[in-house]
Amino acid sequence: MLQVNALRDIPQISMDNTCNMMLFIMNYMQGFIILSCLIAVSVNFSTFLVIGTTSPVTYQVLGHLKTCLVLSFGYTLLHDPFTMKNILGILVAIFGMALYSFFSVRESKKKSTNDALPVSQV
User: Fold this and answer.
1) CB–CB of 94/100 below 8 Å?
2) What's the mean pLDDT when you consider all of the chain?
3) Cα dihedral across residues 99, 100, 101, 104: positive or negative
4) Is 89 contained in some domain?
5) Rounded to the nearest 10 degrees, how much is the dihedral formed by the CA atoms of 109, 63, 40, 69?
6) Would you say residue 94 lies in a domain?
7) In this predicted model, what pLDDT tens digit does every residue of 52-82 receive, in sequence order?
8) Of 53, 56, 98, 122, which shows the fewest CB atoms inside 10 Å?
9) Same domain for 80 and 42
10) Is residue 98 part of a domain?
11) For range 76-95, the mean pLDDT
């Protein structure tokens, strides 16, 4: 036979408890919104610095590095399983970043040696 008074065993949340919980959430929500804004400003400022110091292509390469790191940390910390597609994508991205770095350094060395040559005066 089904008991009609089964609802009495469910813990009841008082109105005072609910109001305190809402005040707690609202106080911390403002802090999280401010923290989110500060992080967004920091990201925009770092983007400005990276593009101003290097180039937009380097910024894109750093973006791909960040994606590879996010996937790797997701696997390490959250035990998110990798598929062969993920592994292949990460390897191709790392290979591309290595090639870009190699040619970028080689080009900057060529420029620095060309700039360092003394100008002969006739």
Assistant:
1) no
2) 80
3) positive
4) yes
5) -110
6) yes
7) 888 888 889 988 898 888 888 888 888 878 8
8) 122
9) no
10) yes
11) 88
